[in-house]
Amino acid sequence: MSDPKPRVGFIGLGDQGAPIAQAIADGGYPLHVWARRPESLDVLEGHAFTVQPSIAELAAAVDIVGLCLREDADNLQVAVDGGLLANLRRGSVLVNHGTGLPQAARELARLAAPYSVEVVDAPVSGGHAVALARQLTTIAGGDARVVERLTPIFRTFSKEVIHVGPAGSGQYGKLFNNTLMMMNHQNVLEMMHLAQALELPIQPLLDVLRSGSASSFALQAIGPSITSANVHHLQPLELIDMQLFSGAVDALGDQAHEVIERAVGGARGLDELTAIVGA
């Protein structure tokens, strides 16, 4: 008989976390969840899961815990103040699927070490629609053997699982990815300004750019994923990511300045870009 699948705990059932948790449950892993608000559990209707009444009781019931929370401070509150680390068994794994600072990922690993709990930072890329399709890219930082152990779970919601390096590397990978995408937003916006100045028809030009060698995810996403209906929700998130990126590369000083400025420009111009292309 094969070994039973590990029990997985999950905290953070938001836009990204909910479809990740659903996929884990549908993959046959015993799923245990805790939520601050009971109504948050509605997103798991139709999927097999066990509710735990407290963070401590969730920790005691599982082998692996996934967090998909908004900020690094939320992870620390759950892990330390909430009793997650203190109640996990030795050899358990704590996985952070949220986006945050590499420095915070390393600090979480340091805090977990006295409890003999492994920590992997594994942010995901792709957005809500891609999460629903279970086609995310999971970007993992941590011990290679631990990431290999987690990979079958990650594959329930991912098309790609990439081990980038030690603790904090997953966050670097995610932030570099997001920053380059925002720089590409700025590239597209500048090209659209030139097209407008020449009074070129925008839609046929977009068809050329999307199907030709100039294509990029940033360009393809305008319309299908980034629209006038959601752009004002996405813009603040992109600007938060740029604050994180700036903090992540702070040691480089002015070396990263031009990259940051261009990416911030792309995030700030996202609403204008959706208006130009009629998304």
From TrEMBL:
Keywords: NAD, Oxidoreductase
InterPro entries found in the cross-reference section: 6-PGluconate_DH-like_C_sf, 6PGD_dom2, 6PGDH_NADP-bd, HIBADH-like_NADP-bd, HIBADH-related, NAD(P)-bd_dom_sf
Boundaries of every 3-hydroxyisobutyrate dehydrogenase-like NAD-binding domain copy: 168-230
Pfam families xref list: NAD_binding_11, NAD_binding_2
Active-site residue numbers: 174
Position of the signal peptide: none
GO molecular function: NAD binding; NADP binding; oxidoreductase activity
Entry similarity comment: Belongs to the HIBADH-related family.
Name this protein carries in UniProt: 3-hydroxyisobutyrate dehydrogenase-like beta-hydroxyacid dehydrogenase
